[in-house]
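Attaching the record inline, Q. Sequence:
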Amino acid sequence: MGKKGFEVSLLKELDRLRAEEGVTTPKIGFYVHGFNNSYRQSIDEIHDLESKLKQRFGYAPIIVGFSWPS
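Structure, as predicted:
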């Protein structure tokens, strides 16, 4: 649930893709923030996600953020 739950689910899915589909180098991700998040919060979350993916895979994939006024 929440940010931590999203990260755990995302990393599990990336591990599954690596094991089952042979996808080993995710290059681009899209982050769509939900209602009640400020622009600053969404940028902070994108930064955190990029950092965790870099630790996991050894490089930082491109994360494309989608934001709208909330």
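The chain has a mean pLDDT of 79. DSSP finds two helices and two strands in the chain.

More tomorrow.
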